[in-house]
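Look over this record as teaching material.
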Amino acid sequence: MARTLEDDEILTTQQAADILKVTRNYLSQLRFHEEGPKFVQCGRRTIRYWKSDIQKWLDENLHQSTAEYT
């Protein structure tokens, strides 16, 4: 089933950065290195994030020890 604005929220880069407690520049670096949450490119310079994708990315990167992600 396709995701809609009715059942999920789309966020600006600043809103996503605020949720993650990081800078917009850090999110940009994650995108460049293909390491961050999935994002939507809505134009040449407009990036958006689905809130559920941020949660999924956080869940996938949850660790108890640094040895888990070597």
Residues 51-60 form the longest helix (10 residues). Strands lie at 10-12, 40-41, 47-50. The chain is about 40% helix and 15% strand.
